[in-house]
Amino acid sequence: MSSLTVNLKCEGAQGFTLNCALQLPLQGVTGVFGPSGCGKTTLLHCIAGLRDPAPHSVIHHGEDVWLAGGVSVPTFQRGVGLVFQDDRLFPHLNVSGNLDYAVKRRHSKPPYSRDTVIDWLGIGKLLLHGVSELSGGQRQRVAIARALLNGPNILLLDEPLAGLDYNAKQDCLKRLTLIAKQTKLPMIYVSHEIQELSHVADDLVIMREGEVTEHGPLIELAGSLESSLARDSNAAAILQASISGHHSQWHLTELSIANQSLWVNALPDSQISQLRLRIAARDVSVTRSRASDSSILNSLAVTLTAMQPCGPGHMLLQLTLGEQFLLARITRKSADQLALQPGDKLFAQIKSTALLSDQGYNE
Question: Engineered SS bond to 2: which of 62, 220, 225, 241, CB 3.0-4.6 Å?
Fold first, then answer.
């Protein structure tokens, strides 16, 4: 598998310095996460060729040298598609004109058509609209379509959904998930919201103060007690599940994880079979025996793998579920009363789940 190799030092404003070395896979979606001002956008701009890093910095896109030893390939020759927080559409052109501009100046002919991209982004009814007539979500969908029609070999997204309302954000995330699957186009997606990245990212880079602190598969980092994600009050595990069946009499859908059933609100009956779930640690409790008189439907057999203090009065548990991990945040008192030890066989009671993606998009 080819990779994007980055070794950068770049001075920023007010004494800020980006100093990082990374090898990113040129497949799937790589999320870049961290607080504002940690260097996420600077990293993306260096990759795109919009910033000049210090001498001896290196960027290799597979076997192509973008930056090294005095060589600096200009942005338009790197074949990057760019989507910014502000859509940067041309206000004097309508939607169709913005798309045509990208087609005329494309880096290479993409393996998908203009009509296909329009369908993916759901903008067919907007083609004759002026940019000023569009909502924020519509503008971003047009910006993504324009970037795709430029024929990029990598798509760079810098806080593309910032400022959108919940429904517009969810719509864009579903469409980006579909595009990543359909095109196999590698993407680097910058955001300061881990919930947003949990929808789309396969790989995750965590940054702080210009440095890379963690890098690995998103699902592994989300379920690890060693990750900084576990120390957040919104810590949550990300799991893959499959659909077992739909039960109309209860308005529920049955999912399968490690050959166990997990129930969620009814999902549309479609050909989609694979799902990604986000389960918050605060929504998981544990028992030593399966409750038979509880209103909580989801009680899964798990093994306590590890545990660690989480604040003055809580413990964070890592629970093995087949080859995946759940997290549970419980009180220290509860941990003492249950006399919990790694290796214990337990039941995880799950109060709620968040469906993140269905690997597809249905209008």
Answer: 62
Q: In what order do the strands lie in the sheet with 324-331?
A: 284-287, 345-350, 298-309, 314-321, 324-331
C-alpha separations of 144 from 29, 158, 200, 340 in Å:
15, 11, 15, 49
Tell me the pLDDT tens digit for each residue of 3-41.
999 999 998 777 789 999 999 999 999 999 999 889 999
Amino acid at 348: A
pLDDT band at residue 360, thresholds of 50, 70 and 90?
A: very low
DSSP 162-198: TT--HHHHHHHHHHHHHHHHHH---EEEEES-HHHHH
Determine the residue type at 240. Answer: Q
* 203 bridge partner residues: 30, 217
> What CA–CA distance (Å, rounded) separates 256 from 245?
9
In a 10 Å sphere around its CB, with 0-12 CB exposed, 13-18 middle and 19+ buried, how is residue 89 labelled? buried
The conformation of residue 152, written as its DSSP 8-state character, comes to -
Mind giving me the DSSP string for 29-76?
A: EEEEE--TTSSHHHHHHHHHTSS---TT-EEEETTEEEEETTEE--HH
Mean pLDDT over each residue of the chain, to the nearest integer: 92
Residue 201: CA atoms inside 13 Å, Cβ hemisphere, count? 31
User: Which residue in 152, 232, 147 sits closest to 192, CA to CA?
Assistant: 232
Q: What's the pLDDT tens digit per position in 316-328?
A: 999 999 999 999 9
Residues whose CB is less than 8 angstroms from the CB of residue 323 and which lie 6 or more positions away in sequence, other chains included = 258
Q: Which of 322, 340, 321 is nearest to 330 (CA)?
A: 340
Nearest to 44 by CA among 188, 173, 187, 153: 188
